[in-house]
Amino acid sequence: MYLRNITFYSIALLLTIIFTSHSAKAQNGLGTIKGFITEETGEPVMFTTIFLKGTSYGGTSNASGFYVISNIKPGNYILMVKSMIYDSISMPITISTNDVITKKLKVKKAAINLTTINIESSREEARTETKTSEFKVTPKQVKQIPTIGATPDLAQYLQVIPGVIFTGDQGGQLYIRGGSPIQNKVLLDGMIIYNPFHSIGLFSVFDTDILRNAEVYTGGFGAEYGGRISSIMDVTTREGNTKKLTGKVNASTFGSGIMIEGPLKKETEASPSSTTFIISAKNSYLAQSSKIFYSYIDSAGLPFNFNDIYGKITFNGQNGNKINFFGFHYDDNVQNYRAISTFNWLANGFGSNFTVVPGNSTMLMDGIFAYSNYSITEASKDGLPRSSDISGFNMALNFTYIIDKNQLKYGLELQGFKTDFNFFNSVKQSISASDNDSEIGGYVKYKATIGKLLLEPSFRVQYYGSLSEMSPEPRLAMKYLVNDKLRLKMASGLYSQNLMDARSDLDIVNLFYGFLSSPDNLPSQYKQQDVTSRLQKSQHIVFGAEYDVKDYITVNVEGYYKNFSQLTNINRNKIFPDADPYNDPSSIYYRPDYLRTDYVIETGNAYGVDFSLKYDYKRLYVWAVYSLGFVNRSDELEDYSPTWDRRHNVNLLVSYVLGSNFDWEVDVRWNYGSGFPYTQTQGYYEKLDFGQNISSNYTTTNGGLGVLYAGLDQGRLPAYQRMDFTLKKKFFLTKSSILETTLSITNVYDYQNIFYFDRVLNQRVDQLPFMPSLGCSLTF
Description:
Immunoglobulin-like, mainly beta, 22-stranded antiparallel beta barrel, globular, 5 helices, Maltoporin, Chain A, five-stranded mixed beta sheet, 3 domains, 48 strands
């Protein structure tokens, strides 16, 4: 403990020294200009060039629209913003000795149409950011994928990101480069979301109409993120319109939604601050509408209903300072699923985040405090109720300095949560746990531009209070600009986490998805090696290259390796309680750990290569992805490939805009995936549970249905393929009102994709067949 405290305070001292040194650096006689670049609606303008006319002084706005031009000699200058997308602006500015001037700049979108090549910001980002295993998803991209139920959704776009695997249309989960869903950290405006997808896996809890962007890190992510060992999904919503009241309503055969935004207090010259709001709500009535429109699938309907609501209020200050208050409520209700189980899950949360630009500093400070919870219950006809609940808070404080082309970022993060879990495994052994946990992390990250080399080392220290364990985690990202078209890149790092999931891995799709933490009933040894840590750990290494074939064609190739050096899993082989006499080595009834502990230790790895090609020119957008991946796991007894080990995955997306007014759009997506591993059924037997122990009379007792399983995940399901199609038509009612109608078809050629195999009924159950849907939306 003494050593851990020394390490922690040493990191804190280092951050203090860095903060002091950079504050002092501003006092060198030279001046600085800083601030935000935004659109008139208040949205940030990312990766746009700002400079002093006729000089070499300049900079680029970051993802928040923040810019800094430093080390400026005193004098009179013309400050300019130039962009292909926005009208240019210029203003005179005077720099005095040690001046730190804050300028909030607003730009208007240029009068351009879709024939204009919009490549400026993405090219600038590719040359100034390492962007290894990082994909930025915008609302425009989400809307270019064929919609399901005429409603574009982030969940549908995530499926075409390289390295991402979805396991099913119903109850599907997200697997990223070999990591299971619990190993993916999901953030919404900085708040932790424990389950981002609904019971029907075609929809997420995020509303595209309020989405600013989603940054998906499939591996090798930097030290600003901690507590997960596979990937990060960081979703940011936009603030409300600062100028006027606007909104959108939509309805389809799947569900409906509404979004309203606008100013509560408008910005004026006399009072440059403003207050805005944005609120969205959406729901699914598929359980009811499917009985009318899709009775050919199941006469009982598709039992997937959900409701979402999200709201945000933003207070904007004069120089870009702002504070947001937000909250959400999500719930799902799956009634009598396959006539076997009823599921309910519920999520709530609220929080606040802020951005502050201190007046006399080149620093940008931001922070978050949020609380969220998620609970799920399953009532099954087997009479074994299952439930899981997780609730807690997370808070963080981050500091960013931009110095010329370099950037320093550091911060602290604190998280506390409680898990409550009740579960029965396949042999009806109870596993229950209730834990309180805390985590604290500190990190420092520096991005340096050295000629053609972008160097981004970072370091994180993650302390797990409930386990009394500290994890030092160095990380590194680099990019080398070989020439104007070719860029080489790499990323690596060490990662750890405490949370684990609880589900049956005998089946590919599970609607019950529980959470556990701080497992204390682990084996004392793993393959004759002492187990000294209760953390799950991984190490990543990624190499890649980007090549701009032309201004509008980009090819990206990445090879990756993830070593999961320690994992924790529910013990699928447990048949004895971990109590006397079974855990007493001196007893004749003693049984090894793997037959009695609640959890088991595993190791594994994931490796592969992802290839993507993007074509974006005039009316045509093409996105092609091929992923080759291998996922392996090993426990005390056997080596196996988990149920999400899809060897080949292909996605082809084409979007084309037609009409002289660009009022027609056709979107097509085709997906092919090789078969998932699964555990085969070898036979059946009468299973006696001996409920009265030795007093049970096996000659008169009626047993239940017992299943004889083959080797774990030794079989392979048939390959998956599906084509989706969308046709959109816009009607321009007024200058600011647009009616859009959408015809969508899911599974155009009605390919029979297996969902799962019902072991009890001994029959195959398929995923969604040919499903047309019609919808419309009104934007005002």
